[in-house]
Design a protein that fits this description.
Length: 323
Amino acid sequence: MSATLESRTETPVEGEPARTSSLPLWRLLLRDRVATAAAVVLTLVLLTAAIGPMLVGDAANRIDLARGRQAPFSLESGWLDVLGTDLLGRSLLARLVVAARTTILVAVPAVLVAAVIGSAIGMWAGYHRGRRETIAMRVADVILSFPSLLLAVVVLYVFSPSAANIVLVLAITRIPIYLRTARAEAAELQSRTFVDAARTFGTPSGAIIRRHVLPVILPTLLTVATLEFCFVILAESSLSFLGIGIQPPDVSWGLMVSQGRAYLQTAWWLSFFPGLAIVLTTVSASILAAWVRLATDPAQRWRLALPRSARRRSVPQIKESTT
């Protein structure tokens, strides 16, 4: 009698893979209440950043010292003061809306620039291998050897803090993440049969990367980009909190937390609501990234059709048997 460990297997419910793979993504999303709530929060944040400043007008900069530090949850002064006012009597809700646009306009370009440059270099290096791969990986290792926030602090301290400089430095520090991910995926795909067939028929390497490599690794890159969106928001908020990020008269969530920290005991809402906005946005993005990873993986997508309790039970485990 001897004990052996069976291999890890994932057995989907019979008939479930075919039915789940045919469902559109939006229907799969509605099956998961947590992911749906996260998607709603992110959609609201993006809509707020896009059209919110037009709705609140100049309320974010309108000073009224007589209404300074007005407590939240009161509609006596109008709906714009429902979250209270700051020291100068400016509507905190209006400032949150304007700050949302500033934060998103830093996070989205930084993620897009890093994703496009890093993914392109990574796929090119992973497909061709050899010296090109070595050079690309060494450059990525050099950038990763410096902590992202520390490098951003040094660069922004030397140069003037501005939204453009923040986007540039955060994009540069996050390029190696996409580069290493795309390089690993492309290196594995370049020896696949369908890539060899395209190469045999004389298809240029650039066309092979665009038509055969990119579509396969795109779901992974989207998942990484969603997670990096969280990191960039937190990084921008940290830099603004330290005073080397967004500068007045512009406003961001991190800057609002920094400006209100001295009044936590007397005006807690000045820091609480901007901090809550940061937490809700980053947590929602993290949840949605986990859902996207399952939804775009054909081998895992069937799990999304199961109830949440059954989904947890379907996690593969190492089973012990006797022979």
